[in-house]
Amino acid sequence: MLIISLILIIIIIGGIAGIYYIMAFNRLNDLKTKVNEAESIIDENLRIKYDTLIRVSNKLKKHLKTDKNYFKEYEKLNTMNLSNFDMDRKLNEGLTIILKMRDDLGLETENDLNKDLENIRQIDEKLCATKNYYNKNTSLLNGLIRRFPTNLIAKIHKFKVKLFFDGKDMDDEIIDDFKI
User: Fold this and answer.
1) Mean pLDDT within 26-49
2) What 3-state DSSP class applies to 166?
3) How far apart are CA 20 and CA 98, in angstroms?
4) Residue ranges of the domains in the chain?
5) What is the CB neighbour count within 10 angstroms for residue 134?
6) Could you tell me if 36 and 28 are in contact, meaning their C-beta atoms sit under 8 angstroms apart?
7) Alpha-carbon distance 29 to 150, whole Å?
8) Beta carbons within 10 angstroms of residue 47's beta carbon
9) Residue 165 in contact with residue 135, Cβ under 8 Å?
10) Could you tell me if 142 and 162 are in contact, meaning their C-beta atoms sit under 8 angstroms apart?
């Protein structure tokens, strides 16, 4: 009777451990999927924002009285190997230049131009929300990867700690990695 009780206890403990393992693995996978989906949405919106900025810059070039290409650096962004964070920063710099030029050229009432700029504003809202979602889920995923006993499950299945959208690694020794 003692052996049967011992076997039954081992089976119950094994079953509980198996259920926990499955639940933790599924949670890790869910968070990884959410992070990857957010990253995909960020990529897509950055591409759309880039295309729209190039279209707006071409419209502004028509109104310039000079042959100087103020947008040369931004037209090459799609060929550069940039992180999403760096691409986002460069596109925001380009948008600032475009808005300044629009104001300097007195094109505030240009409907076609304003329609594109409104599209960019909407893309920026999506990007902001998606970046927050990405960082929130990255934080949750990284917490599970570092916490016992899910860190064992993460190691077994080769889950890696993800960087936040801004590219910061909170575990490295660099304390001045904040970019302005």
Assistant:
1) 96
2) coil
3) 54
4) 2-156
5) 22
6) no
7) 12
8) 13
9) yes
10) yes
What are 11's two structure tokens?
A: 């089976």
Q: How confident is the model over 43-99, as pLDDT tens digits? A: 999 999 999 999 888 888 887 776 666 677 777 777 788 888 888 999 999 899 888
At 4, the amino acid letter reads I
Q: What is the DSSP letter of 163?
A: P
Q: Kindly state the tokens that stand for 180.
A: 């302005």
Which helix (H) or strand (E) segment holds residue 144: the answer is helix 111-146
Question: Position 19: which residue type?
Answer: I
Q: Is the pTM of this model over 0.70?
A: yes
Rounded Cα distance between 107 and 100, Å, is 10
> Residue 74 is encoded by which pair of tokens?
């931004």
170 pLDDT above the threshold of 60: no
